[in-house]
Design goal:
This protein is 30% helix and 23% strand. It is α/β, with parallel strands linked by helices. It has 2 domains: 5-250, Rossmann fold (3-Layer(aba) Sandwich); 295-391, no CATH class. The strands form 2 sheets. Strands 1, 2, 3, 4, 5, 6, 7, 8, 9 and 10 form a 10-stranded mixed beta sheet that branches. The chain has a 6-stranded mixed beta sheet with strand order 15-14-11-12-13-16, with helices on one face. Helix 1 packs across helix 2 (57-72).
Length: 393
């Protein structure tokens, strides 16, 4: 018998997550892959998971949703930002591992052994000996895209769409509208129920991604290391559980092998080796740093982005002109401040790349790669700013 929150059907289903976890355990997934059933599913509504590829994150989050579908009829809401990413050719293999390991038979007590994709919906199915396909009456997963958010508002209804997964939420190029459109889609799916849970999953780790600023967790994410987990509560009381999954703590055997390979072949103290050895906590690009000696000619340019202030200094070393970028704490009356905010009220501020002669010098130096950065983090912030402006012109 279904139970509802506060005995009110409008508020949504009341889930027993201990029961969900017990059912998940019965699947006996390998120990060296990500296990979402270990999440504290009753303490937050948002679960944000990042990792390198190859930890089984999407597969096992989907399995968790399929468990909830089995127990409660919950429909998984699988979301990508672009409609093209939920077309059959791009999503056809998403259940490949689940089919291979016969999890569908376990979930459906042998009634089905495969899945089929029709009209943006996934159904359980079974291919019979005579070549026909027996398909379940109801779908267990719906695929949606953020860029079609407005379309869904008047047409889409998902009273049991309580399991929301945004896959690959970290993208290199980010439209300012992405976050609000995504949350607006959540509102369309969840209406005013208290039952939905939201998963944001990414196979890229970018600690300066704008979403973290939007979610008010950037201060926490920036100091987290691989393997860290953190429950964050926003000023208005929303709980978010953030984790950065360390692939090699999932598989201790692989970790031991990795350490031995690094010792035998790649034991050199060079930060540029981190992408090879896997010893870098974050997927951080190595940016050029300034020379030991250089002359500063002008230092009143700034980038203001995601609550960060970057000072852009026009410098020279010998006869070579370059731009040096470093963190700053304040601006001055004669400062020129580039911002991604289109509503500019300070006469020192200019949207995007500005429009003046000296403004162009700054961006030309960057385009010509005549630029250095105080740290790799500063380089990442500047790069994300540039990408944001280019996308939102």
């Amino acid at each position: 018998m279904e139970e509802y929150i506060n005995n009110d059907k409008k508020l949504g289903l009341k889930y027993d997550f201990n029961l969900v976890k017990k059912e998940f355990k019965k699947l006996k997934i390998p120990k060296d892959v990500y296990n979402p059933s270990k999440l504290p599913l009753d303490v937050a509504k948002w679960y944000i998971s990042m990792s390198p590829r190859g930890v089984g994150k999407t597969t096992n989050i989907l399995l968790l949703g399929m468990i909830m579908n089995k127990l409660y009829g919950t429909e998984i809401q699988y979301i990508r930002f672009h409609e093209s990413m939920i077309m059959n050719k791009n999503i056809k293999d998403i259940f490949e591992v689940i089919i291979q390991f016969k999890y569908i038979e376990k979930l459906t007590d042998g009634k089905y052994d495969n899945v089929i994709y029709k009209a943006r919906r996934w159904y359980y199915c079974k291919y019979l000996d005579d070549g026909t396909c027996e398909i379940a009456d109801n779908h267990f997963m719906m695929c949606l895209s953020v860029d079609k958010n407005e379309t869904y508002k008047s047409t889409y209804n998902a009273p049991k769409g309580d399991f929301i997964l945004v896959d690959e939420f970290i993208e290199k190029y980010y439209l300012d509208s992405y976050f609000i459109d995504m949350v607006d889609l959540f509102k369309t799916i969840g209406r005013d129920r208290l039952s939905p849970i939201i998963f944001l999953s990414a196979n890229t780790i970018d600690k300066f991604h704008p979403f973290f600023h939007e979610l008010q967790i950037s201060d926490y994410v920036e100091i987290m290391e691989m393997g860290d987990k953190k429950l964050v509560t926003t000023e208005l009381g929303t709980n978010l559980y953030v984790e950065i999954i360390n692939k090699f703590t999932l598989d201790k055997k692989s970790n031991d092998i990795k350490s031995e390979v690094n010792r035998l072949y790649y034991g050199f103290s060079n930060p540029k080796m981190s992408s090879i050895t896997g010893n870098e906590s974050w997927n951080v690009t190595i940016y050029p740093h300034p020379p030991k000696e250089f002359e500063i000619h002008r230092r009143n340019f700034y980038i203001s982005y995601l609550d960060k202030l970057i000072n852009l200094e026009i410098c020279s070393s010998g006869r070579v002109m370059f731009l040096n970028c470093h963190l700053a704490t304040k601006t001055y009356n004669d400062s020129i401040i580039f911002t991604n905010k289109k509503d500019v009220f300070d006469n020192r501020q200019f949207y995007g790349f500005g429009n003046g002669k000296f403004h162009r010098i700054i961006w030309t130096l960057i385009e010509q790669k005549k630029v250095t950065y105080q740290t790799n983090d500063v380089g990442a912030i500047v790069e994300n700013y540039i990408n944001s402006i280019k996308m939102n012109r």
